[in-house]
Target: DUF4129 domain-containing protein
Amino acid sequence: MTGAFGALAHPLAAVVGRALPRSADEPPIGIDRDPAREAAERELSREIYTRHEPGPFRRAFDWVWETVSDLLSRVTLATPGGWLGLLIIVLLVLALLIALRLRLGSVRAAGGTGIPDLLGATTRTAAEHRAEADRHAAAGDWDRAVRERMRALVRSLEERALLDPRPGRTADEAAREAAVPMPSFADRLRAAARTFDDVTYGGRHADAADHRRLDDLERELRAARPVTPTGPTGVGAGSFAAPGGVAR
Model:
C-alpha cells in the first residue's frame, strides 16, 4: 500500500512542485491543466491500481441486479400490501397460466393433431367403421361412436363412387360434396358434419341421440338412389347406377 501510494505521489508531487515557487525571489512556474491531467491518468491506469477492479461480467451482473432490485422496490411500493401483495399477484398469474395451459392441452387432446382430417391415416372399409361404431355405442362411448359412424358414412359413399377417395377431406367438405348426388340429404349431411366437428375438435361430448341421428342417416344413405347429374342439354352426363338398376 505504501509503495503504491509512493508511486502515485511521485509524479503528482512533481506536477504540483512545478506550480509552487522555488524561492522567494524566483517567479512561480505555471502548471498546464491538460499535461497534469494526462500525467495523472497515465499513473492511475497502471496495473497496480486496476488489478482489484471487478471484471466486465461482474460489473454487468451488478448492474442487472441493481436494476431488478430497484424495479421490484418500485413495484412493491405501488402494490397494495407491499411484498405480500406482489406475491399474491404473482401466484394468481401463475395459476391463470397453468389453467390456460391445461385447457389448451385438453382441446388438443380432443382434436388429436388438430388437423381436420375426417378419415385419418388409417384405411378402413365402411363395414369396419360401422363395426367400430357399434362397439363404442355398446360401451356407451358416444364420442367415438359418432366419429366412427360419420367415417362409415363417408367411406360408404366413396365405395359407391359417389365421392372420390381423397386423403385430408374434412367433414364439411364431405357433406358438401355428398349433397350433389344426394341433394335431399343436404341439410342432414351438414348437421352430421357439424356434430362430428363439435365432438372431434370442439370439445363437446356426444350422446345417444347424436349417434342415433348419424346411424339413421348412414342407413338411409346406403338405401337411397343418387341423383344422376345432367349436362346442359338435359341428357344424362353420367350414371351412378350399376348394371341392373342397383344404386352403387
